[in-house]
Design a protein that fits this description.
The structure holds three protein chains of three kinds.
Chain A (H helix, E strand, L loop, with lengths): L23 E2 L4 H11 L3 E6 L2 E7 H7 L5 H4 L4 H4 L4 H4 L1 E2 L10 H10 L4 E6 L2 E7 H12 L9 E6 L6 H14 L2 E8 L15 H23 L5 E7 L2 H12 L3 E5 L14 H8 L4 E4 L11
Parallel strand pairs in A: 1-2, 7-8, 7-10, 8-9, 10-11
Antiparallel strand pairs in A: 2-3, 3-4, 5-6
Helix pairs in contact in A: 8-9, 10-11
Chain B lengths: L2 H4 L13 H11 L3 E6 L2 E7 H7 L9 H10 L19 H11 L3 E6 L2 E7 H12 L13
Antiparallel strand pairs in B: 1-2, 3-4
Chain C lengths: L7 E6 L7 H10 L5 E8 L5 E3 L2 E4 L1 H25 L3 E8 L2 H12 L3 E5 L6 H6 L2 H9 L3 E4 L8
Helix pairs in contact in C: 3-5
Classes of the chains: A alpha/beta, B alpha+beta, C alpha/beta.
Amino acid sequence: MPAVRLEKDTMNLKTLLKRPAVTIEEAAPATAARELMRRQGVQHLPVLRDNELVGMVTEHDLLAAGPSSVPELRAYDWDEALAGLSVSDVMSRRPVALTPDTSVADAAHLARQHRIDAFPVVDGGDIVGVVTRGDLMAVLRGVLEHGHPTGLGHVLIGTSLRAGQAGALDAALRLAVAAGAAVTALHVRPLRSWLAGVEGATAEPVEWVERIKRQMADKALGAQGREGHVPELTLEVAEGSIVREIARRAMELDSDLIVVGTAHRRGLIGRVGKTIADELVQVAPCPVLAVPRGSEGADAGR
Amino acid sequence: MRVGERMRRDPVVAGPHDPLGRARRLLAPHGIRDLPIVDRSTLVGMLSAADVALAQPSAATTLTFGEIHFQLGRVPIERVIRSDITAVGRRTPLAEAIRLMRARDVAAVPVVSGSQLIGVLTEEDLLELLAKLLTPDTSSWTPHPRR
Amino acid sequence: MRSTMYERVLVVLDGSASGERAVTWARELTGGSGRVVHLVMVCPPAVSVRNAGRTVAFVDQLEDAERATGFEYLDRVARRLREDGLTVATEVRVGSLIDTVEAAARDLAADLVVLSCPAARGLQCLSRAGLVSRIVRTISAPVLIAGPGCLRSA
């Protein structure tokens, strides 16, 4: 969307009027109003009688006048009778009209206070356009859109004892740096009763923590060189089902993104071929980024 | 600026099995136009005043006013709501939320954490923000920091 | 500042608003102008319609119709993205979801695949459950999925 040059004192409705007004006669049939709105791509029509503004008719007015959307109530409607309705039967009277030099701030204030959707804009005796809430929202969006911040505030990386997580770590850190987000790396160990038979189970979490700390420090330094921002990093360890623990922590931390590697789950009957990522997607409270092993220059087995 | 800074917490809500009559009673007096529908705090849809209006029979119906009221009152909300939800998060940038609202043509958007409803962002609140930002004497205009 | 990590993003759509979540998330992760976003809509393969022993609608007729509708939809979505300065290409592919996504990712040399897996409707999301690992294994690109527990569009 093109940037809006904002001159606060002079921002008035004139800058929002892009097209000539589309109006309709009070005596016109309601169906003509619907057709006109459809053709012109508008949802609000100023209503005239003898060239004088007498009301506004909106798409909402027409919808309310139409047959019920609920089947058991529809049976009692006569579609033909609808065609007998004219604009004056459905419009609202005494619209609030504004002038081109009304400020946008005042228009926003009025729209809110009086619950108005659209204003006809009048200059001298002529209707020169319509300003809608949509137009006002577009202005607000232009005012707010500075530097395109992202919705990423917190990234959670889920890891387990399996190798090949370096790619996930790398991806998460680079995303976090670019977005200015904080990162938590969560290492989940299986419950002690499951440890027998799982490869690498005897490795202490402490070793893992040291290893990850080294990796993160390296990458963070590398990242800082590029963007000048070092992401806030936290390491945590949990025990239990890896999918459940990651989902739970993401909920608690209100994470915006979960990043995992795609190492295979092992040792549980019937899960051949499925990975942690597959199951996590079903329960995660935020999107999941599954990063393949060996990507982003990761070292296998580190 | 992010959604979390302007949203309303503790919005008025209704359940999917509640009758439409209840929704009507909630919408009208509070001046709310959009009602989040939740099933034990999980968001399942949004009901707008327009959806309720669509459910009303036309002026040409043969039902009496009392009949309309009675029939409509009994229809469960889940029959009428849109279930294709557009929602945002606490950290979603406000500009992005507005863009979504315009794209979907809605006047309010639910704010969720995962699938749990935590608030609502309404056009009314956004209009108030616009008026405030554009009024010279009551606001100080500084470009927003990156976060 | 938006992330500048991913340059060639493949976004998989199915025509629904919940499917479109993928688009907003893709925007979050690609940043502004210069990034290439491919919108691909996947349609299941058509089956010819027969009536009283005669084929009334042929597979290629049905698929052409699906392609036309799909393109219209993708154009609407693409327009919004282009307004934000992104380079967008659109394509409609017919086939099974997994095979089509794999083929598209390979053809487009995607460095990120984004898709939305909305509220589990019986088998629909279950069948996608193997999707993540399959795609990642085959094309070696990261995959971002917005699942049923994540209602946010952005």
